Amino acid sequence: MDRTQQTASAVDELRQIRLEAHKIRSVDGLRRLFERLQTIRQMHIDDFDVQVSVAEAHQEIIERARTLRTASSTENEPFPPEESGAAEIPPEVPRLDTKSWQRAVGLALLFTVLILAAFFYLIQSARRLNFQDEEQKATPKTAVATPAGAAPKAANAAAATLPLPVTPTLRLYTDLVPGTVVLDNQSPRSLTDGELILDHLSEGTHSVKLTGRSGTAAFQFSVSGKAAPQAIGAPSGSNALVVLVSHDSSQSHLTTNAERATIVLDGKNVGDVTTQGLNLPALGTSERQIEINRGRDRQRFVWTYTAAPALTAYVKSDPNTGILVLTTGQDGVEVYIDNALYRRKTDRGPLRIPLKAGSYKVRVHKDGFVDPAPLPVEVKKSEEASLVFKLEPAVEVASTLLPPPAPAPAAPAPEKTAPENTPTTQAATPQTTTTETPAPTAAAPTNTNTATEAATVRKGGGFVTYGSPKSSGAYSFQAQGHVGGFLRKGKLQWYAGYQDSDNYILFSLDGKHATVREVRRGKSVEWNRIPFSADSNKWVAVNLAIKPDSISARVKSEDGAWSDLGSVSSPGRDFTQDQVGLYIPSGDEVSVANFRFTRH
User: Confidence class of residue 375 from pLDDT cuts 50, 70 and 90?
Assistant: First the structure.
């Protein structure tokens, strides 16, 4: 579960606590709610929104407890209070209203909690910035591609912090895919993209047999205690090169079936390997380049650090393929190769991707982090190329809430649309998720020649229709999104190809990304997502081209260049007959200026 979902769950539970507090008629019941409140406060100590909600619920529980105790003492008093010997207050002295001072104390407590929460947030932010400054001294500021023949500069220290096993481990990487591995005559194990990791090895001698599409390999190793597994003799292979690297914190050893081969480590010659293998210098915790040279034949491998004592086995055949070794320092990172989503996410360290020899453009994404810039990479035959991405946590910035605008004039409902069709998009197969789509609100009048010069402010409430083109053309306008809630971040969203609330194309800007989604039969499909930085208090220019069989869009910030969001196409469907407009969630506002439609 990501951080946004955790926050939403905590806020919902706090809302339920506040409702229960008003219904409970005993102080003991309120005490149980108070204990639940403290648990939520500790679980979300770094979440500012949750801490504010906790403070509000805390104050309501205190006020309710005071009310119950006051009522209880009044009902249980059998006799009127005795007169005390204290001096009477003169009538000219003003009396202090009990509810007034209780309200004042409550407000003081609330502001105290808010101020403490703000100071805590600032302290955590300062600590995070200081940590990033220290980390930048040891790692590059941006992700860089490591040349095939040079020692990589970026340390893989982040990967060392991942939850890795500490038992003797076998890591096997190969391009003999599809393929199977047999360990100690057990049932064959399938390879996952040419990779197999076994981290619960028992003591004793083990044998491995690998069978692939174009070659085979076999080797033996022994496990003793918590030391790194050690290769027994030289490995064997048919139409395959086998390299075994045994590593733990104290020593490293390389064994291979390449006879009379010279080993080069990070560009430095470390010696010739024999049938007994070759002792290597300490590999440390950084990514290393290992090169096997036999005459004119050179094979390169990327060795990556693992905290466990491990035997790493590389098995390479001779097809026109190479390996991309991608390091992010985070688990669950999505990888896009030439804008196509790779089927696996990063998990417990670097991700190794077999690719045909050629040039590629790679980008990564993970919710809650800023997308780093895409990087090019050249994958060569029988070699391994390395890419290192550094993901920075995203920082949420609250938008400025503008005064409420004058109410917009009433407008007729959207016109009827053409029968439902299922459009297709020229992009990789997306992942589909079910989303709840709000029903459309009253729409603006339909006009195929729209020209709004002055800036207007529209309140939220759902779909706001600006027109149906009826012919090929382009919509252009400038817009500025405003937020309607406390510490919430606004979005600028517009749509086209609108048939009904379950079928349309939605374009969104959230300040960091531009996203294109298709809602088809109530299910949301993300077709494209690119980095796009735009402050919520600045204007954004939008150009939306509508053709009978396609919709395309591009956006531009005040001080940036045009960014293409891609095209959605659907042969056989006429997008010019569908509606175009803005989607404004309830409580939000959007300023719009120079809204125009030009026929083509």
Answer: very high
